[in-house]
Amino acid sequence: MPRGARLDAPGTLHHVMVRGIEGNSIVADDDDRRFFVTRMGMTATTTGTSIYAWALMTNHAHILLKSGTAGLSTFMRKLLTGYATGYNRRHKRHGHLFQNRYKSIVCEEEPYFLRLVSYIHLNPLRAGLVNSLEELERYRWSGHAVVMNRIRHEWQDRGYVLGYFGQKESACRKAYSEFVAEESGRGSQPELTGGGLIRSIGGWSEVKSLRKQQEKQFSDERILGSGEFVKEILDDVEEEVKERMPASAMEELARERLALSCEHAGISVKALQGGSRTRECSELRKQLAQEYGKGKGGRS
């Protein structure tokens, strides 16, 4: 698979981060903030994108969303291009406003959804833009106030978030508020801003534990989730990529996949290709043969 390719299938949960170029501000005043939020809501509606959490900071923004049929790239292009054009016109400036490539992390929903919601909504408190959780409930530039029903944005799916806490509105809001208060003591939580093995399974202590148990885990910097989830995503993407790749690229992909499989199995490519009859080599050959068969149309 080409390095750096986006995992952009509709219906995928993404944690998106956008930053001002060279760390510069992306908003100068509340008029800019209103424009950004309005643009985000309008774009979400027209592209069928579901937004669950967001926080607009001074020089960056976080959004937790599920992409619509148009895909993540279309939503982000319309949001950022439209906003940057309006911002430059209003402030009589030229040039890029955002870093050329926003960061998007595909997230496994079950273990991470609520943690991501609270992490994103707590950004203004961690940054000192508000001084307390009570102030955060009234802060207009974060989705937390929407979930707490202090501000109305019809395009934000607050019901999906509250649904994790039950069915009765008032009880759900109370439980959500208590959850965010508990999460506020966790600190910066860098594992929620990127993918990869260390972040996905909970830090270096868990990595070391798995190593002691000689357990292997798939990982990818673009994905936040378990090894099984990462492998499933990469397998799906690989099938789509294969359909468009020339033969030379397919061969390179096969070599990369073979090397990765050998690395996870703890054996060398040379040993596998040299006919070694160890149990590890035999099991890996069987696994690769089964995967190859599926790729050739043997999938049930």
Describe what is shown at a glance:
This protein is an alpha+beta fold. The protein is 52% helix and 9% strand.
Main beta sheet, described?
5 strands, mixed
- The CATH superfamily of the largest domain bears the name Transposase IS200-like
Strand adjacency order, main sheet: 2-3-1-4-5
Task: Label the structural class.
Answer: alpha+beta
> Alpha-carbon distance between the termini?
24 Å
What is the radius of gyration computed over CA atoms, rounded to a whole number of angstroms?
22 Å
What average pLDDT do the residues reach? Answer: 81
Which bin fits the share of residues in helices? 40-55%
Count of alpha and pi helical runs: 14
Tell me the name of the CATH class of the largest domain.
Alpha Beta
Approximate strand percentage: 5-15%
User: What overall form do the CA principal axes indicate?
Assistant: globular
| Low-confidence sequence ranges | 1-6, 195-219, 240-246
Number of discrete domains: 2
CATH topology of the largest domain: Alpha-Beta Plaits
Number of strands: 5
The CATH architecture designation of the largest domain is 2-Layer Sandwich
